[in-house]
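P.,

For your records, the input lines for the assembly:
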Amino acid sequence: MTTVSVELTYLICGTCGCPHMIPTEIYETAEREGKFWTCPNGHSRGWSIDGAIEILEKKLARAVDAHHRAETHITEHMVRARLLERQLSAQKAATTKAKNKANRVEVER
Ligand SMILES: [Zn+2]
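Structure tokens returned:
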């Protein structure tokens, strides 16, 4: 016996209100490529190719925005890291100077 699992997308027909489900792969392909399916009562549902292109353009714009935000975030962290490195280096130098001064005072006694 073979068990097959199919993810379904729940939909309601915008014409007759009939609830129905179609495989998610078919739904996403229709959205991506501008295709149609029919509700159980035969009403055509889906996207025109122009609608699909518009959806893809919006997804692309969101992805580009997210990429730019991530780049900005990374740049801010890199600037902060460089600042912290300089502060650490300055603190190490100050500590070394203080230790050397303390050693000189101890030797002079
Ligand atoms: Zn319908």
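Two observations worth noting. The chain has two helices and four strands. The mean pLDDT is 93.

Regards
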